[in-house]
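Appendix B, example 12.
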Amino acid sequence: MQATALALLGAGPDAEDAVQDATLTALRRLDDLRDPAAARSWLTTIVRNNCRMRLRAARRTVAAPVDELGLPSADPQPEQLLEQRATRDWVWHALSRLSEPLRVVALLRYFSEARSYQEIAALCDVPVGTVRSRLSQARAKLTVALDETASAHHPDVATAQRAQWREAADTIAEAHRGSFGDVLRDSWWPDVRTVGPRGEHGVGRDFLVMAMDTDLSHGVRHTLTNVTAAEDVRIWESDLSGADEAYCCAPSVLWLQRLDKGRVRGLRLMHRGGETKTPQRGP
């Protein structure tokens, strides 16, 4: 993939970004890959298309998006659904083999809305260069992990993800009912450390309850839009709405949670701007 990008774009950050974006596309569309033997040509096609789009943009030409992958759009057959689920479980099993720092940047880059280098760097409290380095390492280690675990049995990811979604939805619902503290006692450590969206620091569950109560008192409501979890890392994303005019409120917020023995030990919150996303339905 790197060689293809370099051949089309030359050495520099554009080629590196093209590979990063192509990796994102490939991970999200991995279910469409039917024949593992075709993975090499499939990946290089994605990278080549990405580079061509960058070249067209550089020339300031206007072109309609074209899907050049030739992937089927018909409803999948039962055997295809089984294959897709097996592939999904395989990928998540490989992700679980990454070290925690690499797993965090991979989850943020490929499975959350905060996928820019700058946002990942802020959430991880590291320089942008470190983010690039960790993503490069994550891709390399994922390649090895996928190869080593291709024939192994992988646990069903869908069941675990549904449980994670229910827990997030229940937590937010209880917060809206004024019972946020009761929920935190069950699944968050008493000395949980929080870094707020404006850089404010707090220790303990009371700090979180106070922050949530302040938002609620100004009319803020959360609508869950995405939940991603793997091993000791969990990401919640929610839209924010209903704030009164005097209260400054961003359109959405991301909760990056670090877990210890299944309970949240650390939390970093990030407000995100832009247009409010359309809520997705839970799995």
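The CA atoms of residues 89 and 157 lie 6 Å apart. Confidence is low (pLDDT under 50) at residues 59-74, 76-83, 274-283.
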